[in-house]
């Protein structure tokens, strides 16, 4: 492929250009849109798809990974581009969608309009003269009425000016929103950096203080802690989640701890060793009773042994008295 793609100056202050991620995706769509008028058949996941002029294939997960943009932002951008007529959906499949890239710079649009107007005027001027001459005065009146009609371009001009004013107001609102979004993004970045102070990354996107990690290791062991770290890392990466403290979800009442306890319960059920609370309470009570009985028996044995010793001593004393008498 060679050549160039036109971009109009009307996008200079557009919301699309002010967001670097959105602008990168927009340019990617522009570059990938099929430039040839001849359709192309592509096979994607075993499915034959026909791609026509200006069309491109879009899959949110793949584009998210390739361009390093969250899927939620891509979803928002696609909706806005469709609403403003930059793209339109032409095919929809289970794993991807085909869009047509509809954007054209204003200079090309105006050029097409002028060409159409010039073509219409030329067709009118090329009509046979006899058609008007044969009408006599009536033809003159028609010509006069036609000449008194306002030109098409001046009639459209006020509408265009009004559109520009509305666009200016809309653009001003978007400027405020963009500025606010940039401030929020900076604040969010500052919070993330602050939340990681004095911490180490024990799993991807999971940050803990060394003493926090040591407590968890002592409580859950290496196997249990590794399981919980993997679950938390997978969740945070999949939904682009931020926690001020990752340690909090490990504590009692945190969702990760509850999920780990549920995981242990399922494993016990599979191994046949699971007991409900009532069963566990009964077993604990039986153990206490057995312990108490053992202690009582030990006490009774000690008492019996003491009694035997006392009886024995008494008998020995009596025997000595008889011998002395």
TrEMBL record:
Residue stretches of biased makeup (Polar residues): 124-147
Biased composition (Basic and acidic residues): 158-202
Biased composition (Low complexity): 112-123, 148-157
Chain positions covered by the region annotation Disordered: 112-203, 300-325
Protein name per its UniProtKB record: Uncharacterized protein
